[in-house]
């Protein structure tokens, strides 16, 4: 059974060359109250890295949630990509840096 999937965040960076996408996948039908968050960074039709976390990893009394962690990771990766663009000059260099940073 495929989980219900909701797009939470999608940002296209570097003039459309790099995409960050964050989805929330609802697994409640199989595991009540369970959601997985999937963050991907891709460019040129290739996924360079995937970060996954889920609600099962965090206990209820903790103040941090899986969604909070996923959103922080999204901001971290977005900042990293913007920093790469600021440091590097050519599109080719940026693409190589993205491939290197997100393996």
Description of the molecule:
It is built from 2 helices and 4 strands. The chain has one domain. The chain is elongated, with a radius of gyration of 15 Å. The protein has helices at 66-87, 91-101; strands spanning 4-13, 18-26, 35-43, 46-54. It is an alpha+beta fold.
Classify the helix fraction into a percent range. Answer: 25-40%
**In percent, how much strand structure appears in the residues?**
35-45%
Cα-atom Rg, whole angstroms?
15 Å
Pick out the low-confidence regions: none
Span between termini = 29 Å
Anisotropy-based shape = elongated
- The total of helices stands at 2
Written as H for each helix and E for each strand, in order along the chain, the element string is EEEEHH
Quick rundown:
This protein is an alpha+beta fold.
Describe the SSE topology.
Layout: E1 4-13, E2 18-26, E3 35-43, E4 46-54, H1 66-87, H2 91-101
Features of this protein?
single chain, 103 residues, alpha+beta
């Amino acid at each position: 059974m495929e989980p219900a999937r909701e797009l939470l965040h999608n940002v296209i960076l570097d003039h459309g060359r790099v995409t960050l996408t964050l989805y929330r996948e609802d697994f409640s039908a199989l595991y009540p109250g369970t959601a997985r968050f999937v963050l991907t960074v891709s460019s040129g039709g290739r996924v360079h890295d995937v970060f996954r976390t889920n609600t099962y990893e965090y206990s209820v009394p903790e103040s941090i949630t899986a969604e909070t962690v996923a959103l922080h990771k999204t901001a971290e990766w977005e900042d990293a990509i913007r920093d790469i663009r600021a440091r590097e000059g050519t599109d080719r260099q940026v693409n190589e840096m993205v491939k290197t940073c997100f393996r």
